[in-house]
Recover the amino acids of this structure.
């Protein structure tokens, strides 16, 4: 979805107010937000009222009530301090009303954080058919706020996905006009990024071609269902993409012999994949053999040029084991990069995975 920011103070490139909106929409804890003290009370107040509290998108896909409660307590405190220094300044009763409705609700601070909508804004190098002054795209997802839920880590978006998204946004030619296969699709974040890049390419073609397919796969049925729901949210550009497919794919099936009875090989033979992507898919040593086998099978098809994988370095031994096993059958190249989760997305650098390195690797067949 392409976003238009209507406030008169938001016409330039990213500024303090837009960063604040991005932080609120992505549930960055207020402790890690910067209140825009360089703006006047009138500017900040109008922005918080119209672009945050009353924004139609955020009303339909709001952050959790628990997060809103902490955010508005923090914002009102800053507004009240600013209020003392400027004449004829008054906080709109609707802001107080929202906060009072939240603190009077039944929110148990000791319970696990509830699932919440998250909206991520990012700015392509050129807007996607957009005439608004900001040219920001957005992705909205319903995500878990816990590290593990229902036995899986796939219900939230992790740092490696934002890093890989930034790399692919900056190198969009890698996926334009190509069928994309994602291993471990999680919340659907990367899938929506792929769709947006493909649609950008379509907007700038003189002769329209059918959009290439995006194949989103996971072994966990709950994750795949959440991914499908997110991709199909009407606010996301992916909602009307005609060639998105969701499939259960168990990497362990890639170890089956003979190949005529191999479910992964059968899936790939029909897919005609151009590029394979994955983020944060190496976290358990037991997954290394089936993942390497899946990558080898995918790259054995002539249509598949490469696989690009972003991995957060949580355990050096697990990563080294994966790279050693992959190098026995594939050409492995580490891709130098300077991307972080803040490169395009202005995300909290003090949250989960803070301080951990994310590495990007490219895999091809040994020539």
């Amino acid at each position: 979805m392409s976003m238009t920011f209507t406030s008169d103070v938001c016409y330039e490139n990213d500024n303090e107010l837009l960063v604040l909106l991005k932080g609120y929409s992505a549930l960055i804890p207020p402790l890690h937000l910067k209140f825009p003290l360089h703006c006047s009370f009138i500017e900040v107040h109008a922005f918080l009222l119209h672009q945050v509290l009353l924004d139609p998108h955020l009303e339909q896909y709001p952050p959790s009530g628990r997060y809103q409660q902490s955010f508005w307590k923090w914002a009102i405190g800053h507004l009240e301090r600013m209020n003392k220094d400027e004449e004829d300044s008054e906080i709109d009763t609707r802001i107080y009303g929202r906060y009072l409705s939240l603190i009077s609700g039944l929110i148990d601070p000791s319970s696990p954080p509830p699932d919440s909508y998250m909206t991520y804004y990012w700015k392509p190098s050129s807007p996607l058919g957009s005439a608004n002054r900001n040219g920001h795209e957005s992705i909205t997802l319903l995500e878990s706020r816990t590290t593990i839920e229902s036995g899986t880590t796939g219900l939230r978006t992790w740092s490696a996905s934002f890093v890989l998204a930034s790399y692919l946004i900056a190198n969009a030619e890698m996926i334009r006009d190509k069928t994309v296969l994602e291993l471990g699709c999680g919340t659907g974040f990367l899938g929506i990024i792929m769709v947006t890049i493909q649609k950008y390419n379509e907007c700038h073609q003189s002769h329209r071609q059918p959009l290439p397919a995006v194949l989103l796969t996971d072994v966990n049925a709950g994750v795949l269902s959440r991914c499908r729901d997110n991709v199909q949210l009407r606010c996301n550009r992916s909602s009307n993409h005609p060639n998105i497919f969701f499939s259960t794919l168990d990497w362990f099936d890639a170890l089956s012999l003979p190949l005529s009875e191999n479910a992964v090989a059968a899936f790939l033979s029909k897919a005609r994949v151009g590029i394979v992507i994955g983020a944060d898919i190496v976290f358990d040593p037991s997954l290394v053999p089936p993942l390497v086998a899946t990558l080898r099978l995918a790259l054995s098809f002539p249509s598949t040029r490469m696989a690009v994988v972003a991995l957060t370095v949580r355990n050096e031994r697990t990563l080294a084991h994966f790279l050693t096993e992959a190098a026995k059958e594939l050409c492995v190249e580490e891709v130098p990069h300077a991307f972080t989760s803040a490169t395009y997305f202005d995300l909290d650098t003090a949250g989960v995975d803070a301080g951990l390195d994310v590495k990007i690797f490219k895999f091809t067949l040994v020539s």
Remarks:
- DSSP finds eleven helices and ten strands in the chain.
